[in-house]
Structures are given as C-alpha cells and as structure tokens.
C-alpha cells in the first residue's frame, strides 16, 4: 500500500465511480482500476462493490476511508510546514476559539506570541465547540480552545485546563430574580434564546431538565452569537444558559439565576488532532495557554 494508491482509492470513494474519479485525477480508467485492484490485493479484501450506477464502499472500504482522510490531513499539514520553513517563515496557526476564550485569553496570548515569533501568522475562528471540532477533525484548524466534551471525540485529544460554572441566565430585572427560590419548572413560563442543538452547553441544559423530570425548553430563538444572545436578554424576559466567565466578559447587565438542579460545572481546555504531531509554533501556543490557565485556575 502506497500513498498514490490511497489517493486513487479516496477519489473513487468520493466520486462513486471509477470513470468519474479517473477524469478528476487526469488518468485513464484502466490505470486507476489496476491501482485499486493492487491495493485490494495488498489488503486481501474488496474495498468496493459494484452497483447499477457506479460503486459503493464495502465495510472494509469504509474503515480504510477513515484512515485515508486522516492521512490526507497529515500530509497537508506536513506540506504547509515544510513550505513555511523553506520560505523562512515559521508558518500559520489556525485557531478555533470558544466565546469565553475569544475575549479573555487569546487576544493577549496571541499578541505576545506575535512579538516573540515575528514570522508566525495567526488565523482565529470563533464559534461554539460543535462546528469548531468538526473543522479541527477536517484539518481546517490546528487546535481549538473551548469547552471540552465529557469524552474526547474520535481522532481528537483533549488537554483539560479550567473549570467554571454554567447556569441559567437572565437580565438583572427579570421577574425570576425576585423569587426567593425559583424552581426549574418556573423557567418554562418564559421563552428561551439558545445556541444550536449540537452545542455542548445546550446539550447539558437539556440533560439537567430531564434529570429534573421536565422536558427541555424549546428555543424561541437560536443563535451562535454570544453578543446577539446578550442583546436579546437585555431587552426581554427571555432566558439562556452560559458560563460564569462568559457572563463576566461579554454579558453586561446579565446575571445567573440560582435555580436548584439547573447549574453544573464545565471543563474547558485545548483540543488537538490525536494523529497530528505538534509543530514548534503549535507547541508554543499550547504552553502559553497552559500558563494562562494555571494563573486563573477555577473560575
């Protein structure tokens, strides 16, 4: 099995036929077929099964495709680093940042690294952890700093760094702040503005409601923008769910509601591709983030 065979296999899997893959690769179909047959012989299995139109992956082919995708990302990382060294630059770091990290830690860390490493450039993408983890797995990001799932997703490794509280939030003049001990059920009388369904904070909120024996609230408004959610809360009696750090950093006029069974702790940190080696630049950034986390500890 060699790299060219894997490249040909990946093309056939993506295009669903040998003829379409051959055209995309700019080679003859017999040559492509022969290369894939050699790959199958080396693995002692069939990777494709013929269908009325094109081909489909077998179970063995699906397993190989997962590894081929990871290898493609690693090869692209290697090419970019080698090219950066060749032109005398350290390279580019592509960073995904959750809401609290975007305003709290990363600006000062990256500003300092830009001084220490003048040949290094930075691309920072903000968002919630679901889309960021997908971009990391696909090779579009080098690392992500955000909330961590309870279990690291396949292909990713996590470095836990900080812990903070996540709770129901509302504007300071919200009627629920006047109640001595508001109950989980009392929040269902109000509309909610929440991030997308695949965001960890929303999944945790839904789990807390179910543990309290209640159906989770539906989102009247969905948004992945912290500033938009904060603006909606300030001008309405809607509720949301956020960490103590996000409230302090990005939600002036918003306060947590101390509701029994509707608060929990959240661990945040760094996510990396488990199959990718750390470049010197990535290692320096991770170490800088770790130093910052040691200073702030638990929020």
Helix percent band: 40-55%
Structural class: alpha/beta
Shape: globular
Provide the succession of SSEs: HHHEEHEHHEHEEHEHEHEHEEH
What's the arrangement of secondary structure elements?
Elements: H1 3-15, H2 18-25, H3 29-43, E1 48-50, E2 55-57, H4 59-86, E3 91-97, H5 99-104, H6 106-116, E4 120-126, H7 129-137, E5 143-147, E6 156-171, H8 175-178, E7 192-194, H9 200-211, E8 219-222, H10 226-234, E9 240-243, H11 244-250, E10 254-256, E11 263-273, H12 280-296
Parallel strand pairs: 3-4, 3-5, 7-8
Antiparallel strand pairs: 1-2, 5-11, 6-9, 6-10, 6-11
Task: Explain what the structure shows.
- This protein has three domains: 3-83, Orthogonal Bundle (Arc Repressor Mutant, subunit A); 89-161 and 267-296, 3-Layer(aba) Sandwich (D-Maltodextrin-Binding Protein, domain 2); 163-266, D-Maltodextrin-Binding Protein, domain 2 (3-Layer(aba) Sandwich), CATH 3.40.190.
- The protein contains twelve helices and eleven strands.
- The chain has 299 residues and is α/β, with parallel strands linked by helices.
- The protein starts with a helix and ends with a helix.
- It has helices at residues 3-15, 18-25, 29-43, 59-86, 99-104, 106-116, 129-137, 175-178, 200-211, 226-234, 244-250, 280-296; strands at residues 48-50, 55-57, 91-97, 120-126, 143-147, 156-171, 192-194, 219-222, 240-243, 254-256, 263-273.
- Helix 1 packs across helix 2 and helix 2 packs across helix 3.
- Helix 9 (200-211) links the parallel strand 7 (192-194) and strand 8.
- The strands form three sheets. Strands 3, 4, 5, 6, 9, 10 and 11 form a seven-stranded mixed beta sheet that branches. Strands 1-2 form a two-stranded antiparallel sheet.
């Amino acid at each position: 099995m060699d790299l060219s065979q894997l490249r040909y296999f990946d093309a056939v899997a993506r295009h669903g036929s040998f003829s379409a893959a051959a055209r995309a690769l700019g080679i003859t179909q017999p040559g492509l077929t022969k290369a894939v047959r050699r790959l199958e012989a080396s693995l002692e299995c069939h990777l494709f099964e013929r269908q009325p139109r094109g081909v489909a992956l077998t179970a063995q082919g699906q397993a190989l495709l997962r590894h081929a995708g990871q290898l493609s990302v690693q090869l692209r990382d290697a090419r970019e680093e080698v090219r950066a060294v060749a032109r005398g630059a350290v390279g580019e770091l592509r960073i995904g940042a959750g809401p609290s990290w975007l305003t709290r830690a990363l600006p000062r860390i990256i500003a300092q690294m830009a001084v220490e490493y003048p040949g290094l450039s930075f691309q920072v993408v903000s968002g919630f952890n679901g889309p960021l983890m997908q971009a990391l797995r696909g090779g579009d990001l080098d690392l992500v700093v955000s909330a961590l799932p309870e279990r690291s997703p396949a292909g990713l490794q996590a470095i836990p760094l900080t812990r903070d509280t996540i709770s129901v939030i509302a504007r300071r003049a919200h009627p629920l702040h006047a109640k001595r001990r508001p109950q989980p059920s009392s929040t269902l009388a109000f509309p909610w503005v929440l991030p997308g369904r695949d965001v960890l904070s929303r999944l945790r909120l839904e789990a807390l409601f179910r543990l309290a024996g209640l159906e989770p609230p539906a989102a009247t408004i969905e948004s992945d923008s912290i500033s938009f959610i904060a603006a909606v809360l300030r001008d309405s009696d809607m509720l949301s769910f956020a960490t103590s750090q996000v409230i302090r950093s990005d939600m002036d006029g918003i306060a947590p509601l101390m509701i029994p069974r509707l608060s929990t702790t959240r661990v945040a940190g760094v996510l990396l591709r488990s199959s990718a080696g750390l470049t010197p630049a990535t290692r320096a950034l991770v170490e800088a983030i770790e130093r910052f986390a040691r200073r702030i500890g638990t929020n």
